Amino acid sequence: PTTIKLEDYQPPAYRIETANLNVLLDPTATLVIAELKVVRQPDTKPGAPLILDGDNLKLLSIAVDGAPLQSNAYDVTPSALELTPPTGDTFTLTITTELNPDANTQLMGLYRSSGTYCTQCEADGFRRITYFPDRPDVLSVYTVRLEAPRDACPVLLSNGNLIKTGLVPDTDRHFAIWHDPHPKPAYLFALVAGDLAKITDNFTTASGNPVELNIFVEHGKEALCDWAMDSLKRSMRWDEEAFGREYDLDVFNIVAVSDFNMGAMENKGLNIFNDKYVLADPETATDQDYANIEAVIAHEYFHNWTGNRITCRDWFQLCLKEGLTVFRDQEFSADMRSRPVKRIADVKLLKMHQFPEDAGPLAHPVRPRSYQEINNFYTATIYEKGAEVVRMLQTLLGEDGFRSGLDLYFDRHDGEATTIEAFLKCFEDATGSDLDQFALWYEQAGTPLVSVNTAHNPKDNSFKLTLSQEIPPLPGQQSAKAAVIPLRFGLLGPDGQDLEITTGDSTKVTGDVILLKRPAQTITFQNVPDAPKVSLLRGFSAPVRLTQDQSADDLAFLAKHDSDPYNRWQAVQTLATQTLLARTEAVRRKVAFASAADLVAVLQTVLEDDRLDPALKAQALTLPSETDTAQDIGNNVDPDAIHTARTRLIAEIADELQPLLLPLARDYAKDSAFSPDAASAGKRALSNRALHYHAHSSNPGAVALVNDRFENANNMTDRIMALTLLVHHGFEGAMDALQAFRSRHATSALAMDKWFAARATAPRDETLQVVQDLIADPLYEPSNPNRVRAVLHSFATGNPTQFSRADGKGFNLIAESVLQIDKRNPQVASRLLTSFRSWRALEGRRSSLAESALLRVSSSEELSRDCRDIVDRTLQ
Ligand code: HT7
Ligand code: ZN
């Protein structure tokens, strides 16, 4: 396989100024007539070869300036079309290709989802539609004519503004012509055609321009689009208010489809969404679904400026648009909801997905230097760590400095395809700062480990804080340089109040932020009469791991008094982690558990604190997951021991705190009308957390209470939580509940995905067989990525004891499934394959069984480039 390297970047030899596409839609023989105005670039010699990308295309004809080319005048390979062009500065190339949308199971390029034609072109799908320089630094103005039968496809959409519609004389066909005035890379091209319903609204920009807003869905699903539309309008207003960014076309269209490889796609003026991130009502969507829809709608909309108006020069710069846009959507959700709760949720996600990626064989820098398959680089590192890097920039420069840098970026690079260097230069120029060392965050893989030592001297009332940083060795990165790490912090006095910070060294401390720039650094604080409690990494101000000696008393103190809500939550988590690690070790050594009294006492304080938001309480009461605990153990991991330790700890807490938890679980206002707002969702989260504890308790009434919650739920959040508890605990009533849920939601694919996932994640021996039965279920659809993920991805990533079974059967099931899915959809297969990424951390027997399963995948001769890349890197 070819490796593409950042250092080999060359500007394009030819650009395409305008692309006029005429697309004659047909399920198995769509014709695409592309008329491209080609412009030779100043550094290109006249007549230099023109190479266009192509993938799985049937070329019907090619003409230059209207003159057909004979087949000996060009070369066609499976991946390119090469010709010797005229020597003039510009010429017109007309290429006709034929496509088979129904045969497109990869869901890249033009395909059909439930009969609707749609496209996915990022990263390299446009080359499956026509021959083209399919690279993000070639920006063209598109005019697209779509033609299809009127009955089958009353709706014809493409990017930009609609300029003409009409009937095709003497046929049953009609056409629509769309023009997008904004030059764009091919990956932002889109078309949709089908028989769809729509809901319409409108928005007036701050400058007074009216915008028509449409969401297109399958007929009958219109009522499920209100939340998405509301989220869109709030996103548009927020981007104006928070970043001064206005929308720039007459219409903004969103289309929801059920077969989609990822979450959604930001095509200019025509976003295409996995319907999971559009459709919602209380009957079928959980509170998490509502929050996700709001965030994904915002994310795709925000790409209009960060991604579309300013795009990436090459795919190595992917984080330029993705990290920045995730940062923007996180800020939006924080403003719409509770900021601390959102921050905790984002950090939990980062630690759950990005930290293990960054610690294993698939680790890569936020800006990778090489790749074999770009579709494998839409990772938690590019997205989530990329967002953390932008957040650090804001912490370092302050809100005003950050905003002035971003304003300069929008001014300077509007309409361009650019780089991380150019982005950082804007912040340097706007604020006069030097970001050379900061740029290392883009260059180095791995999570820095920050160690902390303290020394208090009562004689001179000084307090020394010594910090050091290192990135443990990784494949391909034996050593790393010291990064600049902004550590927001506070020192708490005996009364729990933050002390006034006095230190002589302003290069190391600015306000409440310590700048750790060297491998090790000591800061001396004055006027500290008593040894303070240190609250470090407030708000999770840098994506690092912290090792700090903290006693249970210190953590309890911080959990109660820290003025930073994130660190209050973190203190509870750290205490829970310490307890879980000790107990996992006890299970393995078959010795008695130490007491969990400290943790129980802290959780009791949390539950009794009336000032705390219910959503925050729910977060604090959620123990670190089994996967989190495995990461903290680091090597020789035994998932069964973790599971036993964690389950017993939850049971112990449930019994100890029953007087507080039971009323929360039982007296929850189930009769009140449902509202998806954050405050109501927070109350549900707390009650469901309490129910979760109660299900683990020794209270004989637990089974009845969970069944009662299932039967009386008036929303999906409560119903699926109760169902999951029934199934995971094997409670009496579980089978009836599964049947009842299935009958009730048989026609909602999104609701049924939850049913499949609840079954696939049951930490029970029989789940392996259950998963095999689910794959054979008439409702299982191997061509639908959401359903495949609901079953197989949920099993591989959400069921550690069963995926990593000691008999290796969990690994074998996933390896076998990867090989099957790969034949149809390599992107879905390779993502599933990444669930093996932490295999080396498992104890010996399990890790060698995982390795055998990986070797089986590797030995397949028909592996896609996607899976070959992942399996090779995972085994390295
Ligand atoms: N920018 C979009 C990425 C995406 C994608 C990438 C590869 C294959 C299929 C895909 N669908 C969408 C989504 C986003 O980050 O907004
Ligand atoms: Zn994105």
What are the salient characteristics of this protein?
single chain; 876 residues; alpha+beta; Immunoglobulin-like; Neutral Protease, domain 2; 6 domains; 8-stranded mixed sheet; 5-stranded mixed sheet; 26 helices; binds (3S)-3-amino-4-(1H-indol-3-yl)butanoic acid; binds zinc ion
Task: Describe this structure as you would to a colleague.
This protein is an alpha+beta fold and 876 residues long. The chain folds into six domains: 192 residues, tricorn interacting facor f3 domain (Immunoglobulin-like, Sandwich); 133 residues, Orthogonal Bundle (Neutral Protease, domain 2), CATH 1.10.390.10; 88 residues, Immunoglobulin-like; 109 residues, no CATH class; 74 residues; 127 residues, Zincin-like fold (Alpha Horseshoe). Helices cover 41% and strands 21% of the residues. The protein has 26 helices and 32 strands. The strands form eight sheets. An eight-stranded mixed β-sheet has the order 6-5-9-3-2-12-15-14, with no helix packed on it. A hairpin with a 4-residue loop joins strand 25 and strand 26. Helix 1 packs across helix 2, helix 2 crosses helix 3 and helix 19 runs parallel beside helix 21. The model has no long low-confidence stretch (mean pLDDT 97). Bound molecules: (3S)-3-amino-4-(1H-indol-3-yl)butanoic acid (HT7) and zinc ion. The site of zinc ion has 4 residues, from helix 3. Zinc ion binds next to helix 3. Keywords: Aminopeptidase, Hydrolase, Metal-binding, Metalloprotease, Protease, Zinc.
